């Protein structure tokens, strides 16, 4: 086992206990796999190795079926357990964690659906290890009130035509969850097989961070959609906005842990010190140790906030129909407040770590810059400035958070 592996295990005592009594056992199921992913993450980043292998390993290990009920082949994990494990996976490799975001969102959609043949069919498939990727967002020229991707009937079959961007995880998935517009202007959600000959996924994502998530373009040319899988209108599960944003924060909390692990190991190894420092070795310099401690503390706080907010999300899932509206409002407000604090906290920590190592930290081979780049990229997807304003409006005026939002041109 590598020194970094040993160091990451030792740091686990800093992150606090898991969310449930059974969590240690659940985590132990994936600990070795997470470690293997962690050991290969830097090489994958430096040499642009797309994560087909680790994602397949996670499928084979049952990780992608965490939330699928036991009767359908899954583990029946709670939302609090899922998000804690996503933080662990994000610590190993945030690209891999983010590539599964749409998949776990699809699982939540199914769990919120009433009993039906549709629900049963897809839970069985996901319980067996099949996965789904994202195909909702579109490029800069799309309109806010409708999607340019069209779902229409041709020769008695439903087909999808158009292009999507931000198709995170779709290159690695078996299915794509597609949002489109019908010719009569309805929003429709459906699924498309990754191997359909009319579907072309282009790995053209060129963001500064999360470079291996394949969050680029997908082109649909008469791609088939099963009529039994089509849902018309806004059929997002009630806590979808809070879920998808808290998933991002769980990944960010994982990045903070990775940064803390990397900086503590680098300081431990470092032999060169400055004449105007406080000790011959950086590992004995109290100012350097303070920096390491601040990075670790930031990782702890980020994880604790995510854990707390995940309880609010679990409360929505467990709520009755009469309780749900209020539970959703509470969960969204908690997550929006978490966004406002966790993102700048971890961005600062990912920058602060460079102060402990001086110029050596900037070497590309060290890969320490990826932590800041990855957090900055995730933070930009759904601007927190709007979330903070929503919290303020609620505090001052009692205005509840807005319903499902859309992005695009206003006309």
From TrEMBL:
One of its GO terms (molecular function) is acyl-CoA dehydrogenase activity. Residues 248-381 form the Acyl-CoA dehydrogenase C-terminal domain. Gene3D superfamilies: Acyl-CoA dehydrogenase/oxidase, N-terminal domain (1.10.540.10), Butyryl-CoA Dehydrogenase, subunit A, domain 2 (2.40.110.10), Butyryl-CoA Dehydrogenase, subunit A, domain 3 (1.20.140.10). Its EC number is 1.14.14.21. InterPro entries: Acyl-CoA_DH_C (IPR013107), Acyl-CoA_Oxase/DH_mid-dom (IPR006091), Acyl-CoA_Oxase/DH_mid-dom_sf (IPR046373), AcylCo_DH-like_C (IPR036250), AcylCoA_DH/ox_N (IPR013786), AcylCoA_DH/ox_N_sf (IPR037069), AcylCoA_DH/oxidase_NM_dom_sf (IPR009100). It catalyses: dibenzothiophene + 2 FMNH2 + 2 O2 = dibenzothiophene 5,5-dioxide + 2 FMN + 2 H2O + 2 H(+); dibenzothiophene + FMNH2 + O2 = dibenzothiophene 5-oxide + FMN + H2O + H(+); dibenzothiophene 5-oxide + FMNH2 + O2 = dibenzothiophene 5,5-dioxide + FMN + H2O + H(+). This is Dibenzothiophene monooxygenase. Belongs to the DszC flavin monooxygenase family. The keyword Methyltransferase does not apply. Residues 26-130 form the Acyl-CoA dehydrogenase/oxidase N-terminal domain. Pfam families: Acyl-CoA_dh_2, Acyl-CoA_dh_M, Acyl-CoA_dh_N. One of its GO terms (cellular component) is cytoplasm.
């Amino acid at each position: 086992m590598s020194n970094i592996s040993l160091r990451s295990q030792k740091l686990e005592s800093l992150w606090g206990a898991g969310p449930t009594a059974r969590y240690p056992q659940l985590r132990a199921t994936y600990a070795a796999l997470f470690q293997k992913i962690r050991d290969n993450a830097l090489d994958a980043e430096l040499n642009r190795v797309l994560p087909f292998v680790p994602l397949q390993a996670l499928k084979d290990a049952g990780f992608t079926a965490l939330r699928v009920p036991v009767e359908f082949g899954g583990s029946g994990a709670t939302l609090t357990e899922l998000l804690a494990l996503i933080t662990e996976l994000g610590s190993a490799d945030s690209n891999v964690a983010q590539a599964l975001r749409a998949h776990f969102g699809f699982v939540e959609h199914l769990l919120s659906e009433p009993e039906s043949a549709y629900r049963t069919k897809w839970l069985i498939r996901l319980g067996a290890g099949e996965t789904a990727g994202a195909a909702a967002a579109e490029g800069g020229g799309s309109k806010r009130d409708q999607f340019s991707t069209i779902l229409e009937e041709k020769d008695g079959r439903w087909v999808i035509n158009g292009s999507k961007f931000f198709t995170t995880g779709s290159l690695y998935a078996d299915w794509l969850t597609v949002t489109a517009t019908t010719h009569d202007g309805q929003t429709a959600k459906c699924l498309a097989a990754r191997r359909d000959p009319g579907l072309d996924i282009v790995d053209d994502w060129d963001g500064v961070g999360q470079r291996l998530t394949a969050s680029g373009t997908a082109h649909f040319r008469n791609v088939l959609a099963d009529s039994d899988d089509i849902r018309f209108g806004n059929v997002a599960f009630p806590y979808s906005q809070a879920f998808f944003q808290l998933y991002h924060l769980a990944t960010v909390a994982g990045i903070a842990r990775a940064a803390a692990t990397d900086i503590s190991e680098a300081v431990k190894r470092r032999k060169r010190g400055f004449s105007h420092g406080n000790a011959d070795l950086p590992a004995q310099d109290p100012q350097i140790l303070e920096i390491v401690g601040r990075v670790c503390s930031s990782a702890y706080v980020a994880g604790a906030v995510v854990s707390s907010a995940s309880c609010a999300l679990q409360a929505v899932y467990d709520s009755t129909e009469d309780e749900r509206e209020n539970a959703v409002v509470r969960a969204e407000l908690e997550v929006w407040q978490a966004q406002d604090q966790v993102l700048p906290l971890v961005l600062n920590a990912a920058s602060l770590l460079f102060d402990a190592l001086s110029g050596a930290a900037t070497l590309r081979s060290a890969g320490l810059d990826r932590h800041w780049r990855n957090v900055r990229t995730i933070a930009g997807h759904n601007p927190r400035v709007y979330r903070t304003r929503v919290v303020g409006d609620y505090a001052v005026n009692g205005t509840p958070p807005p319903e499902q939002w859309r992005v695009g041109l206003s006309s």
